[in-house]
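Why run this: before we spend reagent on co-expression, it is cheaper to look at a predicted model of the complex and decide which construct boundaries make sense. The entries below are exactly what would go into the expression plan.
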Amino acid sequence: MQAFTVLTGLVAPLDRANVDTDQIIPKQFLKSIKRIGFGVNLFDEWRYLDEGYPNQDCSKRPINTEFVLNQARYQGAQVLLARQNFGCGSSREHAPWALDEYGFRAVIAPSFADIFFNNCFKNGLLPVVLSEEQVDILFKECEANEGYQLTVDLAKQQVIRPNGEAFSFEVDAFRRHCLLNGLDDIGLTLQAAEDIRAFEAKAKVARPWVFNALR
Amino acid sequence: MSAKTLYDKLWDDHLVKQRDDGSCLIYIDRQLLHEVTSPQAFDGLKLAKRQPWRLDANIATPDHNVPTDKAERSQGIAGIKDETSRIQVQTLDDNCKEFGVVEFDIFDERQGIVHVVGPEQGLTLPGMTVVCGDSHTATHGAFACLAHGIGTSEVEHVLATQCLVQKKSKNMLVKVDGVLGEGVTAKDVVLAIIGKIGTAGGTGYAIEFGGQVFRDMSMEGRMTVCNMAIEAGARVGMVAVDEKTIAYFKDKPFAPKAEQWDAAVAYWQGLTSDADAQFDAVVELDGNAIEPQVSWGTSPEMVLPISAKLPTLDSANDAVQRSSWQRAYQYMGLTPEQAITDIKLDRVFIGSCTNSRIEDLRSAAAVIKGRKVANTVKQAMVVAGSGLVKKQAEAEGLDKIFTEAGFEWREPGCSMCLAMNADKLLSGEHCASTSNRNFEGRQGNGGRTHLVSPAMAAAAAIAGHFVDVRGF
Ligand code: SF4
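The model came back. Tokens follow.
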């Protein structure tokens, strides 16, 4: 997993509440058996005027010029500014894969849906929760200033505005540690293999039916 | 010892280790796998040269992509016309063979939607931790399981370690007392709950559904309710064990037998919240007052009783809600103050992990019997949740009732719930659907979904527009 330490990047504002993962990456693209290739279909139904299908050459598709990510001033954005309950709905990890491949490294919102929030951390994408008021301020500043950039500092747990003022955010220690160091979760858990075996030995006595063979 | 909620008990019984930073390793008893969210996880295992920790904890079945058309289906994987879908279903087969995971494949009569198959086979049992790369895993909470959806990286993590790294959620009790009126079902109860607390109301919580309404409810009904806990933002929805829970598993193929059964029952009976357990939040609804529900917008919280008129923009709580409603009206092609009964339907879909069990099909068939689908409705379809549900329905003659009325009787799978296979809405079409999500494009690009119960969907199919199934 790629590490996340400090990022200073262009911000794109997506001013909608309850953006669900069906919107972030529509289902027809979930048929892929790979982890890559989803970036061009991020927000597919909003981004293009036609209906997309897998493995298509997206460079020839009609673009929805109204959609915020298609505006020239937001090209190359690395920070996505969003509203409440971002990433609700389906558990598809293809959503963070698509955001990441498109170029986003951090998403800032007043709240996130649980599964999406969790999936982000597994992919080096940092979801940042700020208060509604703080997010509002960022939306206003971002829309008013072309080329608006924010610095997201994970070690300090701060979002730093162009005027130097910082908003602090919370992130739990384990996730922060993994993300700062780009650590593989599975490897870490396997360090506790002895504990897992000990747990299983006890559970086999307490709840033996759970361990029945399936064939 | 202090009083515990059901969630606390399930958590404590599966806690392997709490690390210094507060994160916890939770042991997973059962993982359900399907073709969409597992290929990258198996790939990850191969890349890292890892083996599954405990093979028999896993069970797989293809559901999202399988065709529901009989002719297409009869040819198995080779019959799947769409190449990417075919490869995905084939990849699940290949991975299961390579690693030795038990799979109910496309030809197996036990194949079906994972959340229908697990309980039906006794692969999901009370008190288990159950995960699946699918957010509707909450369904299994109906059996007092700690069950939730996970992403693909976590699927790989569970395959490799049999554990998940978790942080404990808060406890929420959703209490519905009273008695449901005739024609009011589990689906209406859960839609009414989501209408009340909103799609983010349960975020960060594990919900326990308690009160007389859930005690009176069948296991199928409880599954419908827990299934949609995620639509209220909660990864986990649960109902405590009672006699019905235990009776449900008697003689299920993978349920424990003989002395093991007795030991299991003794353990299961403890799976309730202690009488004086504290919840971090309590939400109460009056079951007597719940009417049949219909969603009108593009989020499950945009839902109203059948007797209602669509809301005016001025009645929105705040600017964010107002703009969501505005966009929803535009997308749905509806206008404020329109009566719900004025919404005309182009298609009707009865199926999905929310409402495709035998009880759902019986309740729809009871409304349809001897009637005909309105000729303005282009298509009405019934898709059983599993091969065994389909077989049971056929044994009861339900398929005849549906087909004589003009419904299509399909092969089991997810089908038009998310339109990953060939079953989908055309742009602008309104669909009465017994599924769980009415997001933009969910049932096909530009499609307009209205979430309802099977009985309400059936009545809408006959009338051609929404009607109150009570007295229909
Ligand atoms: S029926 Fe629908 S919601 Fe349920 S698992 Fe299938 S696609 Fe997901």
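Chain B has a mean pLDDT of 96. The first strand of chain B starts at residue 15 and ends at 18. Bring this page to Monday's planning discussion.
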